[in-house]
Design brief:
- It is a single chain.
- 30% of the residues lie in helices and 13% in strands.
- The chain starts with a helix and ends with a helix.
- It is globular.
- By secondary structure, it is an alpha/beta fold.
- The chain has 13 helices and 10 strands.
């Protein structure tokens, strides 16, 4: 009970203490440290792990530093008052302690017995839960008149000593009301307190804009060079990522790739294993071709994101793990073989690219069943589409798989995405590009699949969608 009360009041100070408050930038309270300023932002859907950067990491470190048992560092970078925007090993260690401290709320619902250091939805829920209760109480910064001397040796767990001019709301831990008392110096007016159960009032916290990040963006407008020129003219901006598809046994360099290198564009190349089996690749029957392709990529010299065996957790391509005699284990073996034979080509990054949903959706066909290991992967990629039946927001289509990919702590790229045409497409684009993507620190870029096939994925499927796309890209 004491720990809950401490955290409640401390979080209150974090929420309601903006820049310019009379409270010091780090107020010591019985071994607890209150950072200032700190905003309890609703980072729903955000994931963090080692390598993440940005203001969100600094705020996480500030929360971890509030109590000694989860502090990032005692001195130097990451210590109270010296929080950084980098999620390193010290932050991971502190997160693990935080998760295990709040085991019931974070670990148990996920079936985990130990902290992972990976900050997902449940960890953020705990970080923000007390803040949301305080926001619901309506208490403001002006209600705080001094640092709060909490829990003296004579203070009982059922008693809260506070110095405020308005009631502090604390959620009771039992069905019986908990007594709260207020004391104040004799020179100040008598203070009042009350206790209410915040669950009686549903809470809808306002969303705070997330930090703006710059992502690489691009498109697949078709393989021909003219397609790209048309697309860039329509958008009024040049892509950074140019997506193309090539078949197994096609040579390299491809037509129209030289202009990409000279213009500073990065080639995203889906290397599709048509006309070959996983078994024959594993047996080495394609080794000469793989070696020649690697030599061509090296000679090309421009940056390449190479994506073989993409969407292997689907059931529509001959290399997919549930097609014919294939298995996820065979896909992994084939991937490792190709990566080993290809060798180290400095301008090529291998992108292990999954579909956002496994088909069939079984445990045996889960995304994680196909991961070949860190040594064989440079980038983790994902493909996903709003097919419109039913309509899916970007968050609904990508939140879960992006959280899955974040565990690997690799740069993430959405290498194919688009939305079905419709009255909501413009809003879908705006939400995806300007709001949702910024929630994922490991997300480094995205590619729009600008084709009209079974669905009209094109950004100009209607005028408002084109306007939304042009406004969203930089």
């Amino acid at each position: 009970m004491i720990d809950l009360i401490k955290e409640t009041i401390l979080t209150l100070l974090l929420v309601i203490n903006p820049v310019g408050s009379t409270i010091d930038s780090a107020t010591a309270v019985q071994g607890l440290l209150i950072p200032n300023p700190l905003q309890c932002v609703n980072y729903a859907g955000t994931v963090l792990s080692v390598g993440a950067t940005g203001p969100i990491v600094k705020e996480l470190q500030q929360v971890l530093n509030v109590t000694p048992d989860t502090r990032v560092a005692l001195s130097g970078a990451g210590s109270p008052g010296n929080e950084t925007e980098y999620f390193g090993t010290m932050t991971k260690t502190a997160v693990i302690k935080f998760q295990e401290k709040h085991r019931t709320e974070i670990l148990v619902p996920l079936g985990l017995s130990a902290g992972s250091g990976y900050v997902g939805e449940r960890s953020f829920m705990k970080v923000n839960s007390i803040c949301r209760k305080i926001l619901a109480s309506g208490l403001k910064q002006s209600d705080i008149t001094a640092s709060i001397p909490l829990f003296s040796s004579s203070t009982k767990p059922s008693t809260i000593i506070a110095t405020t001019s308005k009631p502090i709301t604390i959620a009771p831990t039992s069905t019986k009301p908990t007594t709260a008392t207020s004391t104040a110096p004799t020179t100040t007016p008598a203070l009042s307190t009350k206790i209410i159960n915040p669950t009686t009032t549903p809470l809808q916290p306002a969303l705070t804009p997330l930090p703006v990040t710059s992502l690489e963006w691009g498109a697949f407008p078709g393989n021909n060079a003219a397609n790209l020129v048309t697309f860039e003219t329509m958008v009024g901006k040049q892509v950074k990522l140019r997506s193309m598809f090539t078949n197994w046994y096609d040579g390299f360099p491809l037509l129209s790739t030289d202009s990409l290198k000279t213009s500073g564009k990065k080639l995203v190349l889906f290397w599709e294993q048509y006309g070959v089996t996983l078994d024959s690749i594993i047996a080495g029957e394609s080794d000469a071709y793989i070696t020649k392709f690697a030599e061509g990529a090296r000679a090309y010299g421009g940056p390449i994101i190479l994506a073989p065996f993409h969407e292997m957790n689907g059931n529509w391509d001959p290399w997919d793990g549930t097609v014919g005699q294939n298995t996820p284990a065979k896909v992994v073996s084939a991937w490792k073989h190709v990566r080993t034979v290809f060798g180290n080509v400095p301008n090529v990054q291998f992108a292990w690219t999954v579909n956002n949903g496994s088909v069939p959706n079984t445990a045996a066909n889960a995304i994680t069943a196909y991961y070949p290991g860190d040594a064989y992967v440079d980038i983790v990629g994902i493909d996903g589409f709003n097919f419109g039946n039913p309509w899916q927001t970007f968050d609904e289509a990508f939140r879960t798989p992006l959280a899955t990919l974040a565990v690997y702590n690799k740069p993430i790229y959405i290498l194919s995405m688009a939305s079905e045409a419709g009255t909501g497409k413009a809003a879908w684009i705006t939400d995806a590009v300007t709001v949702q993507m910024k929630k994922y620190p490991l997300l480094k870029g995205w590619v729009w699949f600008n084709e009209s096939k079974s669905h009209n994925w094109r950004i100009d499927s209607d005028p408002t969608s084109l306007v939304a796309f042009k406004a969203g890209v930089r």
